[in-house]
Amino acid sequence: MTTLSPSGFLRIGASDLEYRMIGPMPDAAPTIVMLHEGLGSAGLWGDFPDRLQAATGAGVFVYSRAGYGASSPVQLPRPLDYMHIEARETLPKLLETIGFRRGLLVGHSDGASIAAIYAGGVQDYRVRGVAMIAPHFIVEDISVASIAEIKKTYETTELKSKLARWHKDVDNAFYGWNAAWLDPKFRSWDICEYLAYIRVPVAILQGADDQYGTLRQVEIAEEECYCPVDVTIIPGAGHSPHREAPEATLHAISDFAGRILHTHEGSQGRAA
User: Which residues of the chain have pLDDT under 50?
Assistant: First the structure.
């Protein structure tokens, strides 16, 4: 186990990953590990992790995956199974390094998909629940259309300079995500099989006006999961409800976390 400073870098595999640790250390309290979106970073969560820590009393760990934020860049193009690689190879090493003992995964978009693959594929008894904000389980037409549109925006407007606030190597972050999703072979990407193997409670938060996914994603989780699934549809929010409707999002996640983390220590939250 590494002694964690409030912020810094962790060497995971061949990459240096930037992180923030807010609140109590993993050996002192449950830990909420936050997994960012396809264009996100530790910093782009804003003050949401701090507010989540204050609302739950848990420790909150946020980090930038390789290729994002101030973390090491990645070789492009990314492999089309990059989310599987993150969930099956990088995340286990990260949790081990920080001394993760018990807690939740909270993921947004790509991060939510990574959390689903981990929870269904690794069966880590330390993970007591998974909260997914705007998850993707399949590739929808609306996703591809919006991702194609943002590519045009990135190449013709000031979006690149705006993203430079959050990423050391903006092109590495943007094209690593964008090119994978726009690859024709990515249309067959599908992680529904993992949902049936999740054995802990799941919370799904979806903006009613999400431009990157429809409520079909929520329906898939309800159809495929055998575990309890709490669904919160947030009116007036798009793909990033934690930024567009922070109060409603914070309430839903902190309520879920409170119910899961304050149950008896021996409970695994397993569905019958």
Answer: 264-272
Residue with tokens 């995956």: 65
| Separation between Cα atoms, residue 170 and residue 270, nearest integer Å | 41
Nearest to 261 by CA among 124, 125, 103: 103
Which runs of consecutive H residues, i.e. helices, occur in the chain?
Answer: 48-56, 82-85, 91-98, 110-121, 141-156, 159-163, 170-182, 192-195, 216-224, 241-244, 246-261
Note the pLDDT tens digit of each residue in 2-22. 679 999 999 999 999 999 999
Instruction: For residue 97, give every residue at least 6 positions away whose Cβ sits within 8 Å of its Cβ, in sequence order, or none.
Output: 1, 2, 10, 12
- Residues contacting 161, CB < 8 A, separation 6+: none
Q: Express each pLDDT in 69-83 by its tens digit.
A: 999 999 999 999 999
Structure token pair of residue 230: 């709490």
pTM: 0.95
In the numeric block, which tokens belong to residue 115?
Answer: 């959390």
CB 147, CB 182: distance < 8 Å: yes
In contact, 104 and 128? CB cutoff 8 Å:
yes
* Distant-in-sequence, close-in-space partners of 9: CB < 8 Å, separation ≥ 6: 16, 17, 18, 19, 70, 71
C-alpha angle 40-113-200 in degrees, rounded to nearest 5: 125
Give, rounded to a whole angstrom, the gap between the first and last alpha carbons of the chain: 34
